[in-house]
Amino acid sequence: MKIKSLLSIFLKEDFRNFIVIFWTFVFPLIFFLFFTSLFGNIGNGSENSSDMEFRAGIYFEKPPTGLAKEISQGLVTGLGDKNSGGPFENIYVSSFDEGIQLIKDKKLEIFIVFPENLDMLNLKVVLSSVPAPVVKSYYRSDSGSDFARKIFKSVLDSVNVEFYKRISSAEYTLEVQELNKKASDTFSYKDYLFPSVLLMSILTVSIFNTPLSLAYSIEKGITKKIFTTPIRSGHFLTVVILENLILLGISILLIYIEGKLMGVSPKAFSAKYIAYLFMNVITLISVGLLMLSVFRKLSAVNVAANILYQLMMFLGGLFFDVSHTPMIIRWFVYINPVSYMAQGLRNIINGMPLGFLNYFVPLLWIGACIIIFSLNFKKVMNYE
Amino acid sequence: MENIIEVSNLRKYYKTVKAVDDISFSIAAGKVFALLGPNGAGKTTTVEILEGLRRADSGRITYFGKEITKVNFELKEKIGVQLQNTVFFESLTVKETLKGFSGLYEKKFDIDILVKKLELEEKLNSKIKTLSGGQKQRLAIAVALVNDPDIVFLDEPTTGLDPQARRMLWDFINELKSSGKTIILTTHYMEEAEYLSDFVNIVDHGKVIACGTVEQLIDSIGMKSIIRFHSNKKFDSYFKDENLKIIEDTALSSEKKIYEIQTDNVETTLSNIFETTRKNSLSISEIAIRQPNLEDVFLKLTGRTLRD
To answer: Do A18 and A147 share a structural domain?
Structure first.
């Protein structure tokens, strides 16, 4: 009953505070909507093919047969043939010169040439003296979509490597399905951004709201007044954590509703994803408490929260790849729990398993933070 | 009369500062007990130890006849605390704040009565951030009473309030006293201590330098009457009396000073003052005769005023 009364006081204060409402509830929703709208087309052929005008010319120097035919057709379809729901319009041309002319006439953005020796892929023996078939491509420099062109190029490069491996070793690894996936299904910006927005929201509450609200209450004497009543310091901490969990719960629910409306992968709604997300919440709230036990003063907590928030967000791989950052800052990527959380959440969405580090690093942080905070609890609370 | 609180040899040191230095006192049930002293004397530290907010380095505290080592939750149900600086949640209304704090206790006082008595009815649905200093102070007292406590701690309840608001709170505190509550009051206003207290401890540098009822304290310094007047020349150069003191007042020019003289015989002393004035062509004004007060007690004991 006492906890309920105290929680009610804290929540009423929060819900009347514009800053809390904006940063906790409104901003993540706007952010998700804005960036998905802005970059939503990236790699997402299935929904936005009508918006993209990307014409690919296809030419076979010699009609392939057998496995070579199967692979080449799979590749063409996999690149996103509009007829099969992809983003590109594939145009078959009858000669190399015709294709080059169409490029020059700006009727094609890319021209792909399958070589005459494509049938070499049908051979089941390794012939190291035989040159591997090379799929060539020609681009127009003023092509409409630079990004789509890059996708083509990267896929064709992979294909050529696989062709080479097929000819020069016995190991066959090229799979048409894999190519299909790479070209059109794997990358969905909203699926990429969804965990980022969730983690950003968790960071806002755990790194900003929790330690700042505690530091404010302590420094302004609100906790002092509360400790004159029959409320234990443990009850008080429970209330503050519950308060922030409720705020986070609402924030996450709103992001999920928005994600559902925007067609985020159903895997983000799985029990595994939500359970892992909850572990992330606990981890980051612990980090917030650790920060409070180190800095204590409101002004110091404010500065530390701003710095830590930016570092954890940008060096946590929420918005771009951080695995190739310079070594001078990469160490932070390695110790940053958000790096492992973001990767873990994306792994679940992509149907990949969670690695040991995806669990271990956040759990390590939880343990360390709780121990340090517990040791400093009385000092933090100004409690004698 | 039964002592509700007994404190003996209480000490609280902060590094080199002796905030509370071997203080002992007892508080009778249903009385107003005042800790009077200048800022930094150790009043707040003393009451915060009694409230359970600070831990004493040594000493013995007894509540309701039982010695305690810490103020437990059972005891906190029986006390109400108004801190020197109480900050509430700014976005909550007066009603929500009172209800919220009331929910933290088992025993509850009727909030409507509290609000009426402290004249907060009109502000019941106003947010804390819209309240004036006096209204916030009254709310702090109301919050201290939501559990209908037996013992009420009021730490400088009228500091910063205008005279009218102060008088209103004094009346309320007297009303509380009439209802049988024990009140522990800290103040640096001697008028407040004189008006409200049954028993006063004068505290300075962490020590109790005098204690007793207001009358006992005043009697203890042996003063009868004090004559106060203004003079525009160096009156003290012509009037030689060891009891004559210059009262500093920066509002006056350097030429004009306020003098006070203690006397057992008002008529004779006044006659001497007039005689000196006439003989030396001096000018005096604003002559007043007053009885000694707690300020004089403090001045006598420490050589300083309560405001120093």
So the answer is: no
